[in-house]
Amino acid sequence: MPAAVETMMSVREIPWHGLGTVVDEQLTASDALREAGLDWAVEKLPIQLVGGDTIPGKYATTRMSDKKVLGVVGEQYTPLQNKDAFAFADALVDDGSAKYETAGALRDGRWIWMMMRIPESVMIAGEDPVDTYLMLMNSHDGTTGITAAVTPVRVVCMNTLNLALNTTTRKWSVRHVGTMDSRLSEARRSLELTFSYMEDFGEKMGQLAETRISDESFERIVGQLTDVEKVADDIVTNYKTSATIEGFRGTQWGALNAIGEYYDWARKPRTDNARLTGSLFGAGRNARDAAYELMTA
User: Do 157 and 19 fall within a single domain?
Assistant: First the structure.
């Protein structure tokens, strides 16, 4: 089941702008919090049986605005409020240069995310720009920790290029234990290393742009990504016809982007929610990782 979007805001130039509130320009944290429908808080309440005692060590994280239970957590779980998540993200890029381009709630408010564009980009093969985003994910149901990740986005088609490179990491995460103030310096140190991911990304994608790939090799890779004949045919068609990879068709960089573009844009998921979550967290991301590994094996 796709992780349904509950509320969302996005700048119209980025993916998934058909969902939620569309805004005309990048936003500050306070504006993004409001436009994304995230201006609510959670509290941790003890769980009590009807007509009986409370359950020791078990608490319900509850949205205060509508009393909706978001999850069941333990004694040590510390909620991170949405407004504090934005403040945390702001503090990671403390020169004020980053602005929010999308944010929202998934799974009925259980997960929230935000993405800010950072004014650092890489140019692949001297002509294909890739922007840098910082994404922060948080859960209110105890299923995940707090995660900050660097996400490259290809400008030409807004294709998210979340690739698991072997030599650098692109994310930092921590459990909901203790205070966030104590974690900020740790996160900054980690993300300073993580931003080297973009340097590594630019170098490795430049190598893909210089490496030729035959149609037969591309089709063989696609066959390893999916055993659904129609999906494979549609990916190959996208590779042969997409205008966004003109100049890179016949290279591994063009092939990788054709695959990512298919999952982000060309395929027809059941819902727009599935397109969003698949690109960031599911099938699209997994397909790009697998394709990259096959090309560079």
Answer: yes
DSSP 8-state secondary structure symbol assigned to residue 64: T
Count CA within 13 A, CB hemisphere, residue 77.
Answer: 26
Per the domain annotation, does 204 fall within a domain? no
With respect to residue 203, please indicate whether it lies within any of the assigned structural domains. Answer: no
Other beta carbons within 10 angstroms of residue 112's beta carbon come to 26
Segment (H or E) for 222: helix 215-225
Q: Minimal CA–CA distance to 16: which of 24, 5, 27? A: 5
Query: How far apart, in whole angstroms, are the C-alpha atoms of residue 255 and residue 78?
Result: 44
Domain count, the chain: 2
53: left (phi over 0), alpha (psi -120 to 50) or beta: beta
Whether this model's pTM surpasses 0.90? no
pLDDT tens digits, 125-139: 999 999 888 888 899
**Joined tokens for residue 68:** 């909706």
Same domain as 179, residue 260: no
Quick: pLDDT tens for 50-99: 888 889 999 999 999 999 999 999 998 989 899 988 888 887 776 666 78
Confidence of residue 193 (pLDDT cuts 50, 70, 90): low
Residues of the domain holding 270:
211-296
Residue 134 β-bridge partners:
116, 150
Of 160, 195, 230, which one is at a domain's C-terminal end? 195
